[in-house]
Specification:
alpha/beta, 2 domains, 6-stranded mixed sheet
């Protein structure tokens, strides 16, 4: 199946497939953190000692604690369905991701129905939505053996980590009343294994959370919140810069990771000063995803000029001096939504080129 260029699979997995292939993990908060399972032990049909050994706790996970009562209720419901045989126990698809590329063999050339090949390795699949349902199935697996039992599943392969986390938060915040703050408040290194993506998340979060940031409250973090700007495009733009040597060689780039939050907050504060009318106006597109991505894309050019002046990269006044030509060369009118913005068909690439050119030729020479 495809949606907006994203490919995924709608599959049928047996109870034995789920039991073997799916790994279960919950978010831990370090040594003083919470247990993987929440709720006191009471008489139950679930072998909790066995089940808890199947649930891993990790600072890299994003799932909430497992709710003991919910598992008990689901196991009881599965038993009722098995005895009554008039209702399916898992009629809705669970959502699963796989870190590896999966292969699909169509039933015939060009068909969208066929066989999905999943490596038969323990724990290769990870639940995005439906972890409680699958854990209850695992707890009740002995009663499932011998029955023709299929679990509908949506499976993604090699989905980027930030997309997985955002999908999890969006689904659970809207449908299970998850307080997304337990994820939004985490540092990037707790959410993502990729160092560049982790730093990008921390920068975007600083831009949204810090009260002195001109983008305070304007960004929808992990798909949640009142902000108008989505986190994902900004984070991906930043990730590309941090993953390369955009900020000057591996060592300089690594050192810059620690100061990146301060730099980008001060950088956008000066952007808001240079384009004051546009930043504070309602009829401008300066806070659109395209414009913000363009400002991020030219930030290495700004940093190079700061290095040439031998000043601290996060120096507020120095940043203002470097980007001052934008006010003269580009101006607020460039961002009028119904004016130059639409008339020129502005894209991230086109605006980034204009911004770079204005830095290179501050007085207009060579244009």
């Amino acid at each position: 199946m495809q949606q907006f260029g994203v490919q995924f699979y709608q599959a049928s997995l047996t109870a034995e497939d789920i039991d073997k292939l799916v790994r279960f993990e919950v978010l831990s908060y370090g040594e003083s953190g919470q247990p993987a399972v929440r709720g006191g032990k009471s008489p139950s049909k679930v072998n909790w000692d066995l089940l808890e050994r199947r649930i891993a706790s990790s600072e890299k996970a994003y799932q909430r604690q497992i709710i003991r009562r919910k598992i008990d209720e689901l196991v009881q419901y599965y038993e009722q369905c098995r005895q009554a045989r008039d209702l399916p126990s898992i009629p809705g698809a669970v959502i699963i991701s796989c870190d590896e590329k999966l292969s699909f063999e169509p039933a015939e050339p060009g068909a969208i129905v066929g066989r999905l090949k999943v490596p038969e390795r323990e724990g290769i699949l990870r639940a995005i939505d439906g972890q409680h349902r699958l854990l209850a199935l695992h707890a009740d697996i002995d009663n499932m053996r011998g029955h023709d039992f299929a679990v509908p599943a949506i499976i993604f392969d090699r989905l980027p980590e930030d997309h997985i986390v955002q999908m999890f938060v969006t689904i659970n915040a809207k449908h299970t009343r998850l307080n997304a703050s337990h994820l939004v408040s985490l540092s990037g290194r707790q959410l993502y294994r990729d160092e560049s993506l982790a730093v990008a998340h921390d920068v975007v979060r600083a831009l949204n959370d810090r009260e002195d940031s001109p983008l305070h409250g304007e960004i929808k973090l992990l798909g949640v919140g009142r902000g108008r700007v989505a986190q994902a495009p900004l984070a991906q733009e930043l990730k590309k810069l941090f993953a390369g040597d955009a900020f000057g060689g591996p060592r300089k780039s690594a050192d810059f990771h620690d100061d990146a939050k301060k730099f980008f907050v001060n950088y956008f504060k000066q952007v808001a000063v240079v384009f004051g009318a546009a930043w504070g106006g309602r009829k401008y597109s300066i806070k659109s995803a395209a414009a913000l991505r363009a400002f991020v894309r030219v930030s290495p050019d700004v940093v190079r000029r700061l290095d040439q002046e031998h000043v601290d990269r996060s120096d507020f006044r120095a940043i203002g001096r470097v980007i001052a030509p934008w006010g003269r060369r580009i101006g607020d009118q460039r961002f009028e939504t119904e004016g130059a913005w639409k008339r020129s068909g502005t894209t991230v690439d086109s605006l980034a080129r204009e911004l770079k050119l204005a830095l290179e030729y501050p007085e207009g020479a060579g244009v």
